[in-house]
Amino acid sequence: METTRKGAKNTICLWYDKDAEAAARFYARIFPDSAVGTVHRAPADYPSGKAGDVLTVEFTVCGVPCLGLNGGPAFRHSEAFSFQIATDDQEETDRYWSAIVDGGGQANACGWCRDRWGVSWQITPRVLTQAIAAGGDEARRAFTAMMGMTKIDVAAIEAARRG
Q: What is the pLDDT of residue 49?
């Protein structure tokens, strides 16, 4: 598994205040095909840190290469960027949702949640994306059911699909 940026053409860079390494280790514990790679330390003082502080952390989340940058408090995460994690059943949905929300995060509507660093996650059962892709009344019913949920209820989406 690729845990460093070596050879990667595109890497997602996530800006953290000062906890990029803690966030990367948290994600690696929760999600499969995730790992922490190289931790780079600042070679000199910089506006929000000192020489020797963790500057960047290479990591993967579900196989996607990422770089955590400890850039200070200037920028915050928003829902304009999110990781969308496809789940196969309610147990998997519950496990990821609980890890993020119970780990200091926050529940939001329609399967969205935010971790304690402010990164947004969509914990999305495949049954929901399949229902939306089906179109027509099935999609409308599943979408309407989803709009009233925080964490997605797989059984309720399946029932909505059937009508």
A: 85
Give me 29's structure tokens: 């514990």
Q: Please indicate, yes or no, whether residues 98 and 155 belong to a single structural domain of this protein.
A: yes
- Is there a domain that residue 156 lies in? yes
Question: Do the Cβ atoms of 152 and 136 come closer than 8 Å?
Answer: no
Tens-place pLDDT, residues 79-133:
999 999 999 999 999 999 999 999 999 999 999 999 999 999 999 999 999 999 9
Contact 72, 49 (CB under 8 A): yes
Residues linked to residue 13 through DSSP beta bridges, in sequence order: 67
Task: Tell me which residue range forms the domain holding 17.
Answer: 12-70
What is the number of domains present in the chain?
2
